[in-house]
């Protein structure tokens, strides 16, 4: 597929301002929830990237009119909780696990048939984690290898019933699928996770007038009969995209960046905690709210980092940032040890394997464990050609390692379009400032 990209070593610190594009998780949810709402919703600062456009395409194929009125502005004409229509074709979730798993939660209770497909990566990712609890609620779902993988078909079922489900892993996608199905189920649906994962679904359900009962890491939802959409959803910037600049500015001496409009929901700010723990110079300014989501501008200056240790409890709060945290650790003094991160093996690619194999081509300093990484810091990086495995976060982390080190060539580099289409252009702007 796609082409190679060479990122040269930066010769100076990176300075100035970056406006961070919309949050991927919140963008997905804004379109899904608005489609089920009772009036048209205007969505601003939507992430116009491949994953979120997969959600738009899925909802359109279910009969929802979605108008794009600007590069990042959309109007979703919701048809209510029971307004979705049977799709005429197989629905394609592309590369997006969030699209597929949340849509299964919405569609399992619908009185029509839906078949999902996706790209090669999504065909390898585990879907049993969603199909199992939805089936326990009475959904009828079939899929490859005894309902573990795509392709998956949701067969019309009679009314679902609530369950009390103990999740085996912390996963916002699984939690969200169960809560969304729970809106349509008889009785109460309760879901408990081992550690708290991102809570954007809970916050947006509350924005749409749904009452949730929260206790520790458990959330209970009851059947919902009205879903009151707000007029406007303003999506905050994605801290998972800001993460690349937080690390770049920290490790490239002479840097000072202001990252504008970053979502700082505490269930997502593990990257800030870890970088600050490593000695990073990070300040939050202009703290405010966008709906129920906290937002801030972040000032980051270069600093001498040192290694750290972290494990299972914080992983859900930084799960997508581990590739770029590994880059920070390569430049830090001393060792960094990450444990409890087995979930990285079932992302767009096996990220623990991809980090170890590809980052070690730049400097042989990383050892993988079954559920984590040990990274020896103060590595002397050399230039190399590395594989992205068509994984956007691996490609962007490699680009930051190359820019801060001695350069890198990345294959299938365009996969950044999955979550951050402007990434390379922003990097070039910083180079030329
Ligand atoms: O709910 C979401 O929007 C997401 C949840 C996380 O996945 P898991 O739920 O599989 O941990 C994360 O990795 C993904 O990028 C987005
Ligand atoms: C894992 C990711 O997304 P998804 O699960 O939606 O494919 C990600 O963006 O890093």
UniProtKB/TrEMBL annotation:
It is an enzyme of class 2 (transferase). 3-phosphoshikimate binds at residues 24-25, 29, 171, 173, 320, 347. Pfam families: EPSP_synthase. InterPro entries: Enolpyruvate_Tfrase_dom, Enolpyruvate_Tfrase_sf, EPSP_synthase, EPSP_synthase_CS, RNA3'P_cycl/enolpyr_Trfase_a/b. Phosphoenolpyruvate binds at residues 24, 97, 125, 173, 351, 393. GO terms for biological process: amino acid biosynthetic process; aromatic amino acid family biosynthetic process; chorismate biosynthetic process. Residues 14-427 form the Enolpyruvate transferase domain. It catalyses: 3-phosphoshikimate + phosphoenolpyruvate = 5-O-(1-carboxyvinyl)-3-phosphoshikimate + phosphate. Pathway: Metabolic intermediate biosynthesis; chorismate biosynthesis; chorismate from D-erythrose 4-phosphate and phosphoenolpyruvate: step 6/7. Catalyzes the transfer of the enolpyruvyl moiety of phosphoenolpyruvate (PEP) to the 5-hydroxyl of shikimate-3-phosphate (S3P) to produce enolpyruvyl shikimate-3-phosphate and inorganic phosphate. NCBIfam families: aroA. Belongs to the EPSP synthase family. This is 3-phosphoshikimate 1-carboxyvinyltransferase. The lineage of its organism: Bacteria, Bacillati, Bacillota, Negativicutes, Selenomonadales.
